[in-house]
Amino acid sequence: QARLVEYGGGLVQAGNSLRLSCTANGRPFTNYAMAWFRQSPGKERDLVAAISWSGENTYYTDSVKGRFAISRNRADDTVYLQMNTLKAEDTAIYYCAAAYTTTQAVSGLTKGDFTSWGQGTQVTVSS
Questions:
Q1: Nearest residue to 113 (alpha-carbon basis) of 48, 47, 62
Q2: Are strands 121-126 and 10-13 parallel, antiparallel or unpaired?
Q3: What is the pLDDT along the chain (127 residues), one digit of tens a residue?
Q4: Distance in angstroms (rounded) separating the CA atoms of residues 29 and 78
Q5: φ, ψ for residue 12 (rounded to 5)?
Q6: What's the rounded Cα separation, in Å, for the pair 17 and 27?
Q7: What count of other Cβ atoms lies within 10 Å of the Cβ of residue 44?
Q8: H/E element, 50
């Protein structure tokens, strides 16, 4: 069965950068939008960034615009999240997720659209 695996989490000081990656093991995620979510203790799992199957369309939550960048390599089914100028409030478990889509639109996707999830990787930003 296909699954998603995240890499790249860790402890970093505020202002620094991290890059997360997510690979799809088991089968290619053709026609799937990919996204990164995050969840802090006691809070909901929220969408951080999403990217269409083609890679042409992206979505970012307001708090990360200008600091984070999502990208994907369809050749090897890998999705990346480049996180720059990290802040303490970015501390969370980050999850990779996939949603089957028939369009390239990603701005309207919600958590319920994502049917495949990784186990998550911890990102801790020290202030």
A1: 47
A2: parallel
A3: 558 999 999 999 999 999 999 998 877 788 999 999 999 999 999 999 999 999 999 999 999 999 999 999 988 889 999 999 999 999 999 999 999 998 899 998 999 999 999 999 999 999 9
A4: 10
A5: -145, 150
A6: 30
A7: 9
A8: strand 46-51
